[in-house]
Structure formats: C-alpha cells, structure tokens
Amino acid sequence: MRELSLHILDLVQNSLEAGANIVKLEVIEDLSADVLVIRVADNGRGMDEKLRQLVIDPFVTTRLTRRVGLGLPLMEMSTKRCDGYLKIQSTPGQGTIIEASYRHHHLDRPPLGNIVETIKTILVANPTLNFLYRHTVNDRKFTVSSQELADILDGVPLTQPDILIWLHKYLSDHIANLYGGVEK
Amino acid sequence: MKTLEDLKRLREQLKTKNTVRHEGGIQIIVGMGTCGIAAGARQVMTAILDEIAKQNLQTVKISQTGCIGMCEKEVLVDVVRPNEPRITYGRVTVDDIPKIISEHIVNGRIVAELAIGKFTE
Ligand code: FES
C-alpha cells in the first residue's frame, strides 16, 4: 500500500474484526526528532503470544492469520525500510496496541496520503464505534471524538448529506491546519 | 474554518426542518479487508459519500465489513434495499458509483453487468 493512511484503515479494520468497540488512533509527527508514529489501540479480544508472533509472518497464510491481518507484514516491512519498527502489544481478552514508527524524512517513507478520507470512512461506516483520533504535528494538535460528534448530532446520522459535507470540510480544514496551511 | 459550533447550528436547522428520517433506509456495505483496501475500497467509499451528498439522499446507511474471501473480485459493494435480496457488486470502481447510486439506490433497478451475487436473507 502506497499510503500510510491506507495502512491505518487496515489496522482499524483488524480492530473491528477483533470485536473492538473502542479504537484510539494516534498519529504523531515530530520533525525535530525526525519520527512519525502511528498507534492504534483497541479493546478487542487480543492475541496470545503465539498468534502475536504469527501475524507479522508474511509466509503464514492460514485462514486464521489472514483474518487478523494480511496488512501487518507489509506494514512491518515498510517500517524496517525506514529505520523504524512495528510493535504489537496484546493481552488476550483486553485488546491490542499496534505501534508503527518511521523516520520522518526517510526517502522511502510512504506518504501519509489521504488521512481525511480514512478518518471519514471510519467515522461514517461505523456509527456505533467509539473512535478517538488524535493527530499531532510538532506542537499543533487536532482531536476528533466520535462520541463528541454523536452528542452534538443528537440522533442525526453522519450520513445526512449536509452533515457529510460539514464533516469533510471540518476534517480537511483542521488537518491542513496542522501543517500550517489553511485560509481562515 | 469549520467548527463544532457550525455542526451544532446545522443540527438545529435540520431538526427544525424536520427533514431527517432515520428508519427504512437502504444499506450500502463496502468490503474493507486488506485486499479491498489495496484494490481501492476507500476511494470507492469516498465516491459513495460524495454521491450521497450530491444527490441529497437522506436515508442511506453506510457500513464497512472485513474480508469476504473473494480477493479477485474486490472492491466489493453490497446494496440492501428493505425487503429485497442483498445484491453484491464486484470489481467496483469509482466510476461505477454514480450508476449504482442512480440506478439501484434511487430507482431500485439492479445494475446487472456489475452484480456478482444475490442473497436472500
Ligand atoms: S482481504 Fe483478501 S479476500 Fe478479503
């Protein structure tokens, strides 16, 4: 996958398949430390040590492991290529935390890509998921909470056309702002 | 810049206009397994959301699902109309979306050349 934001979507889908109803996504870009970290933490069923080892093995193609994520070995390879790492922390019955780290300026680092579309997809297509997204670029931050949106919407679905248009603009504006570039 | 305050105002407007209906909707489900994503599922999802906004469709529900086990037919999009069989569309591209929306979602006519399955639940 050419975009990190597609890997992010894949990680969140893994969490959903593990039965999670809470997913926290963090994207941390620290240019002075020259790192980009993606962290996805969920409250899904988790994995035992054996399965945890298996899921990053690209040569294991059993049904079982495929279900927990064909994308993880690909992501691990891309982190390694960029002086980074992929860490999986998991506790059966409690959840999983995946952390992928890259050297920000590495020439081979895939671009973050269209993070707006990824966040929009997760929010709109999973109305009962408690989803928290936090993105920091140096000292600028942006947070979205599906809970907060739902409270404001008071029963109006995110798929309502006017709301979809608002959501798109809201995410685009604030994410552009993280990089210093939005007209008021 | 758009704010949460704007969202509050929008919600109030919608509630007073009373245009928001919640039930009886059509459901669209997009396969978001790894293969689906690699084949362009997110772009297809984006096209669906854009079309819903553009055609001002008030009662469509969207959801994502995981691997359906048909890698070679990704991107997979299912359409479920109330009391009708579930239709699966395969190898869906962004360009197919306006047609699927106008024909099947709006007018109830299945787009036969894109459909790969029909399931009665
Ligand atoms: S992810 Fe490959 S068939 Fe679904």
From TrEMBL, chain A:
<dbReference type="InterPro" id="IPR004358">
    <property type="entry name" value="Sig_transdc_His_kin-like_C"/>
</dbReference>
<dbReference type="GO" id="GO:0004673">
    <property type="term" value="F:protein histidine kinase activity"/>
</dbReference>
<dbReference type="GO" id="GO:0000160">
    <property type="term" value="P:phosphorelay signal transduction system"/>
</dbReference>
<dbReference type="Pfam" id="PF02518">
    <property type="entry name" value="HATPase_c"/>
</dbReference>
<feature type="domain" description="Histidine kinase">
    <location>
        <begin position="1"/>
        <end position="106"/>
    </location>
</feature>
<dbReference type="InterPro" id="IPR036890">
    <property type="entry name" value="HATPase_C_sf"/>
</dbReference>
<keyword id="KW-0418">Kinase</keyword>
<dbReference type="InterPro" id="IPR005467">
    <property type="entry name" value="His_kinase_dom"/>
</dbReference>
<keyword id="KW-0902">Two-component regulatory system</keyword>
<protein>
    <recommendedName>
        <fullName>histidine kinase</fullName>
        <ecNumber>2.7.13.3</ecNumber>
    </recommendedName>
</protein>
<keyword id="KW-0808">Transferase</keyword>
<dbReference type="InterPro" id="IPR003594">
    <property type="entry name" value="HATPase_dom"/>
</dbReference>
UniProtKB/TrEMBL annotation, chain B:
<keyword id="KW-0408">Iron</keyword>
<dbReference type="GO" id="GO:0046872">
    <property type="term" value="F:metal ion binding"/>
</dbReference>
<dbReference type="GO" id="GO:0050583">
    <property type="term" value="F:hydrogen dehydrogenase (NADP+) activity"/>
</dbReference>
<keyword id="KW-0411">Iron-sulfur</keyword>
<keyword id="KW-0479">Metal-binding</keyword>
<keyword id="KW-0560">Oxidoreductase</keyword>
<protein>
    <submittedName>
        <fullName>NADP-reducing hydrogenase subunit HndB</fullName>
        <ecNumber>1.12.1.3</ecNumber>
    </submittedName>
</protein>
<dbReference type="InterPro" id="IPR036249">
    <property type="entry name" value="Thioredoxin-like_sf"/>
</dbReference>
<dbReference type="GO" id="GO:0051536">
    <property type="term" value="F:iron-sulfur cluster binding"/>
</dbReference>
